[in-house]
Amino acid sequence: MSKPIKKQCLKQDIQIQSIDGVLFSPVFPEVLFEISQKIKSKGGDSYLVGGWVRDALLGLESRDFDIEVYRLSQEELIEILSQYARPNLVGRAFGVIHLMYKTYALDFSFPRTENKIGKGHRGFLVQTHSDLSFEKAAYRRDFTINAMGMRLPDLSLEDPYDGKSDLKKKVLRHVGASFAEDSLRVLRGVQFASRFSLSLDIQTAALCRSLSIEDLSFERIFEEFKKWFLKPGKASYGLAAFLQMDLQRFFPEIQATHYSWSLLGEFLDHLQENSLDLIDHNRCVLFFTALLDQTQKLQDLQSFLAKITNEVKLIRDIEILWKGKDLEVEQSFTDSQVRRLSLKLNGLFLAKYYWESHPLYQNEQSQKCLQALYQKAKDLDVFEKPPKALLTGKLLVAEGLKPSPKFGVYIQECFEQQLEGKIKTQKEAIDWLRQVITSI
Question: What is the pTM of this model?
């Protein structure tokens, strides 16, 4: 249990004892203490719940302030919150009220029950019950590490399902039987395992294997896959959970790297760590290409992508990297080979991250050859972007030619000469064209 705070505290006075026994001072909105005191004065109780509590016990900062309010009506809560800013009532039907106060986004909700009444992630009847106990309200949550709360204003820990113990043991365990009512929780388990380096509880794994995720939209699936890789963590733990849950039955296109799942896990971990400086789009391209590293057919790759996204640019970029990812590392690459490789991969920028993270290219000789490849690509100005044709339709017209199917032939033949290094400037491209025309 975290150490209670006895006095009215400013942000810098808050101290939470992490699971490692270290005192942690998280960023905290002082206004929450004021609001919780007013809730208490009206006979209610309030708890910080979910991600903030979990992260604080891990010694991590969080900006997710979710507060559950007990034994108070919506009207009474709204009256209190209105003293600070205008409450956003869009979630009022589900017992959720959003308050933006200065730089803090605060979400207030009431304890609720959820009963499955239809198919899909949204097929639930949600009812608020302000008189529920914290234990009963927490039972609807997915995993024990997310079923903890800290009572305000003293921040004493409420932990009815031993989430803190599981967090310390690095175990991901479901709360109860209601877990099975929401199939999205299966994929959430993968990204939580990855983010916090957790191993899946045996009974939780068995329960997940009994569930289907076929009722989920590709948008929901895509979001959980992205969190698996984009959120800080260790992606190999997510892969281990993925395999324990037997999610391959839904995604058979994902195969072990050279017959080794540990190699694929190592690949994902290296890629996750090495790509932190990239934008999310590029990181997703690398991640999904790595997951499909051993997929043999383009149609299988396309089949997988159709299950998770309809983002045209993402699909296109994944296909480009996937088609050119297999590299025969040689002693040296000719200028022509480098230009053609850059053309195939739309530049070598992303491919560099891929190859430098791939477990098969980790030996000293391979790394030396790759570094030489990157340097040559930079010298030829084709590292960031692929070579562009020097001869264009506009130049053909300027030479007095009328548009015709031969334009494409001229441009392609000249470009081949360019890739071979025989034509290096636009002037040389025009001279080549004039010679071709004269010889006809």
Answer: 0.88
The structural domains of the chain, ordered by start, are 11-167 (3.30.460.10), 183-326 (no CATH), 393-439 (no CATH)
Q: Phi and psi (nearest 5°) for 301?
A: -60, -45
Cβ–Cβ under 8 Å, residues 95 and 55: no
Tens digit of each residue's pLDDT (9 = 90 or more) over 188-199: 999 999 999 999
What percentage of the chain carries pLDDT values higher than 70?
Answer: 91
Give CA torsion, residues 128, 132, 133, 139, to 10 deg.
-50
Q: How far apart are CA 177 and CA 180, in angstroms?
A: 6
Name, in order, each residue with C-beta under 8 angstroms of 294's C-beta and a sequence gap of 6 or more: 255, 256, 257, 258, 264
Report d(CA 77, CA 218) in Å as an integer. Answer: 37
Q: Measuring CA to CA, which residue among 397, 399, 396 is closest to residue 413?
A: 396
Helix (H, G, I), strand (E, B) or coil at 346: coil
More confident residue, 38 or 332: 38
Q: Do the beta carbons of residue 418 and residue 390 sit within 8 Å?
A: yes
Helix (H, G, I), strand (E, B) or coil at 105: strand
Please report which confidence band the pLDDT of residue 158 belongs to, taking 50, 70 and 90 as the band edges.
Answer: very high
Task: Count other Cβ atoms within 10 Å, centred on residue 147.
Answer: 29
User: What gap in Å lies between CA 341 and CA 197, rounded to an integer?
Assistant: 37
Q: Summarize pLDDT for 298-319 with one digit per residue, the tens.
A: 999 999 999 999 999 999 999 9
3-22 confidence digits (pLDDT tens): 443 333 334 468 899 999 99
